[in-house]
Amino acid sequence: VYDIAEETMDGKKLRIVHYLNQFFGQQGGEDKADMGLKVKEGPVGPGIALQDILAEKGEVAATIICGDNHYAENIEAVTEEALTLIKPHEADLLVAGPAFAAGRYGMACGALCAGVQETLGMPAVTGMFEENPGVDLYRRKTYICKTGNNSLKMKDDLAHMAGFALKLLSKGINAKLVSKETIGRPSEDGYFPRGILKNEYTQKTAAERSVDMLLAKLQGRPFESEVPVPGFEDIPVPESVKNMGSCRIAVISDGGLVPRGNPDKMKGRGNQLLAVYDMESFLPENRSREGYEIAHTGYLPFEVMEDINRLVPIDALRELEKDNVIEKVYPRFFSTSGNVTSSKRCGEIGEEIADELKREGVQAAILTST
Amino acid sequence: MMKLQIESVDIRDVKAAQKTRVSDHIVYIDLQELEELILEDGRIRSVSLDLVSPGDRARIVNLDDVIQPRCKIDRENEDFPGWLSKMKVTGNGRTRSLNGIAVLVSNPCTIREYAALLDMSGPGAIGPYTTMNNICVSPMPAANVDDRDFENAVKAAGLKTAVYLAGAAEGHPVDDIETFDLHIPESGKDTGLPRVAYYYQMYTPQRDFYNGADPVFYGRELSGILPTVVHPNEILDGGIVNMHKIYGLDTYSIQNHPIVKALYKRHGKDLVFAGAVIGIANMDPVLRQRKAMVAASLISNVLGADGVILTKILGGLVQVDLGLVAEACEQAGVKTVYFVSFNDSNGALEEQITFFPDCLDAAINVGQSLEWMRLEMEPEKIIGGTPETRILHPAGIAQTAGDRIIEVEQSVFAGGFCHIGGLPIMAVDY
């Protein structure tokens, strides 16, 4: 828990919008779980405690309340509607919950915080218990403070969230971070890791650390690697295709080939998206190179743009299909951009593709990389 | 015998003056004389020379390199051989070096995507060069000089300026003398200390421009070269310069190579410095394996190393190159410490590793090269370009040097990232 008195906001009073579910928003219990969005001026329920904690530092200007079922069943639509209700308040911050261990409530708090940040560019903080499913779904998109699993220590949890929010918004400098941002490590500031990396200052340079580590290794003293070893599984090489004549072949590429204009917004670096395009319409026999672009910043695309076959050998495959050397080219092309995508996401994309190919009885795939 | 003595003079300010000299730790520069010197190169039509100091609301753009003022003191040695003088192995004799001042060399006409910048104040003032008094050199090309030739001219202009400034400190009291004395064939015999080598993967063709490599080794390119043994002093003393763009490394860092210096510091006490092997990243899998094999053999069988530290520049596939060399070293019985850089803010540490042989149990986290920063600073002075000069945005959004707010990644700053471990940083899960 922070000492709020230490946080500085240039003397400015924070305007806060608070989100609550129907229960904490004092609308009723499970019987009101289907209620839609409702706005109340000023603080409600836990918001009154939040206001007490903030005292002169902030003002809970409005409270948005929604039924748990209604939100959890219409996440996108309710978030969008809630954003239109929040915007006119010109707030500095959204506080949602805390949701403790309540799953539907956690999803709503996470979705709304993420939406407010993405769409309104407004900071947002929520709080949850570690087993709340909202934690895994939203910790990468918003700050989720760690709370107890029920409201017994509501006041402490709110004080933690308020202090955290003030720290986030303060003009101070965290001398530990190269970026000078105010935020501390997840373990120090009591929030769930967001799955991002920041450069922190260390006592010694990386070069000095490397000599220390090597000497420890050479002298048989204990040392700790600075990078966790991921422990990849060994993937056995599959058996070769026995009968090409009855083989359906899919094409997968991580070279970032997308339609001109990149309608799916595939990112050239750190991409998370798998796009699937219909072979016939995306790669017709008579195609113009004007119809494509490369969403991949890790290689120079000139050669591919000259002839798409250099990335996707579609003309050769169609010829083999015509000559009955293979049975068929699988009609869907899997396109992704593999350039510093996290290995975890790569694994998920691979599984998604494999599921479809297995389901559709495709025997082989050509995977081109760049 | 290789013995290098670097005699340093601490500089606390830099000023324009009638006569170039260094007195009482202040560098005075006759800018006209320096301009004439740079214009001796027929590839350069004109040059802007600007002085910047810490706290200035100055933004230097299109940065190609940062160079420490250095010159050889004894006549039998050469400054930046292959660039400014004839071929002569570097790393011997006396070198004068100026601390607290850097030459920032910009190519205002560059069309390469990854040009670096430096903010002398504001939130983007990160890294060592923002605390120094610097001279900015921004040449413009003569007619009909092609892009690549001009890039070489820009680099040469920067190196020339570095030699010119250090030369001006002749007779000034020296603040520090560092000695790098290492006779590899006989060093460490019978000491019982472990022999430690350094593997320096100092080039990658990933960003080769017009399919040509940058001339980083004695003024010529390295592409296609097999790993080769160099004396560590050659690295410190101008045998190696940075590529024509700053991708988390610059010549200043190479002139003060942090691993070479750290190994020298422990030489004779905890270890014997067994020498350095330089290599490049390969884009061909067979060449990559050959490189790993040859590098490991040089480190193990020629240098006789018991341990090796391995670094690279840039990221992605080159991490595999480095890992293969490390793996081959471990297989040859040489213990390794291997540098890993992270190239995206997305994903926790362990999710970003895509290659990691089990035998590599000692990795150094050299930081996250692409951490986003949002910078608010209205520059009063833009050097090396114009307010309209494009600044690379991590998501491809158009932004220019004169914008009040720009978003950049840390490694776009000269001195904001250091692939060879010169910064006291590491990437941490947030």
Q: What does this protein look like?
A:
The complex is a heterodimer of chains A (370) and B (430). Chain A is built from 12 helices and 13 strands. By secondary structure, chain A is α/β, with parallel strands linked by helices. Chain A is globular and about 80 Å long. In chain A, helix 5 (133-138) links the parallel strand 5 and strand 6. In chain A, 32% of the residues lie in helices and 20% in strands. In chain A, strands 2-3-1-4-5-6 form a 6-stranded mixed sheet, with helices on both faces. Chain A has a 4-stranded mixed sheet with strand order 10-12-8-13, sandwiched between helices. In chain A, helix 1 packs across helix 6 (154-169) and helix 3 packs across helix 4. The relative contact order of chain B is 0.16. In chain B, strands 5, 6, 9, 10, 11 and 20 form a 6-stranded mixed sheet that branches. Chain B has a 6-stranded mixed sheet with strand order 14-15-13-16-17-18, with helices on both faces. Chain B has a 4-stranded mixed sheet with strand order 7-8-1-12. The interface between A and B is large, with 53 and 69 residues.
Give the topology.
The complex is a heterodimer of chains A (370) and B (430).
Chain A: E1 14-21, E2 38-41, H1 46-54, E3 58-66, H2 68-73, H3 75-86, E4 93-100, H4 103-120, E5 124-128, H5 133-138, E6 143-146, H6 154-169, H7 186-189, E7 197-201, H8 206-219, E8 248-253, E9 257-259, E10 274-278, H9 279-282, E11 292-294, H10 302-306, H11 314-322, E12 328-336, H12 343-359, E13 364-368
Parallel strand pairs in A: 1-3, 1-4, 4-5, 5-6, 8-12, 8-13
Antiparallel strand pairs in A: 2-3, 9-11, 10-12
Helix pairs in contact in A: 1-6, 3-4
Chain B: E1 3-10, E2 13-16, E3 21-23, E4 26-29, H1 31-39, E5 44-52, E6 58-67, E7 70-72, E8 93-99, E9 101-106, E10 116-119, E11 133-141, H2 147-167, E12 176-181, E13 195-203, E14 228-230, H3 232-236, H4 251-255, H5 258-266, E15 272-280, H6 285-302, E16 307-311, H7 317-331, E17 335-342, E18 363-368, E19 372-376, E20 381-383, E21 405-409, E22 425-429
Parallel strand pairs in B: 1-8, 2-4, 6-20, 9-11, 13-15, 13-16, 16-17, 17-18
Antiparallel strand pairs in B: 1-12, 3-4, 5-11, 6-9, 6-10, 7-8, 14-15, 19-21
